[in-house]
Amino acid sequence: MSTQKGSTESEGSRKRKNSEAEEKTGEEAESQNVQVEGFEGNITGSEEMELNISLILEKIESFTQRVSELLESGKTMFKDLMNDFEEKLIMIHKEQVEKWQEEIKELRALDASNEEANAVLHNARYVLQFTSND
Fold first, then answer.
1. For the chain, how far is it from start to end, CA to CA, in angstroms?
2. Cα 19 to the chain's mean position, in Å?
3. Which of 62, 1, 4, 134 is nearest to 70 (CA)?
4. In a domain, 104, yes or no
5. Element (H, E) at 47
């Protein structure tokens, strides 16, 4: 219960702080308007400030354009890299499977050869036993 009460009190204090900040912002805006009205007679300062502001805005636009271009080139680079990676991984898989299939063929051929040799030996043993019993 104390945590709920504490959170309610902190929410209330946050709301009061926010409304006080809004009041200060409104008062500051009014004082800035008064200050700007006082400097209207000084046209060169205002034009210079506007020129500086427009230069900064141009820098922002240029930087934003460069970032956008970098993002696009990065996306393209990663897509190409991903495609190359996928192709190489598939090729590695295919080569490994082919090696294992060749190994399986060799094992089957060896097994068949062993079975054939075993049959010849079995026949030779039978012949030897048959001749020794006679």
1. 107
2. 42
3. 62
4. yes
5. helix 43-133
Determine the structural domain holding residue 113 and report its residue range.
39-133
In a domain, 31, yes or no: no
DSSP 92-125: HHHHHHHHHHHHHHHHHHHHHHHHHHHHHHHHHH
Token pair recorded at residue 3 = 């945590």
Distance CA 105, CA 49 (A): 83
Whether 40 and 46 have beta carbons less than 8 Å apart is answered as yes
Element (H, E) at 61: helix 43-133
Across the 134 residues of the chain, what is the mean pLDDT of every consecutive 10-residue run?
49 52 50 47 72 96 97 97 98 98 97 96 91 77
Q: Using DSSP, state whether 134 is helix, strand or coil.
A: coil
pTM: 0.47
Strands (DSSP E) contained in the chain are none
Residue 26 is predicted with a pLDDT of 52
Is residue 127 assigned to a domain? Answer: yes
Does any domain span residue 22? no
Number of structural domains found in the chain: 1
Residues in CB range of 46: below 8 A, 6 or more apart? 39, 40
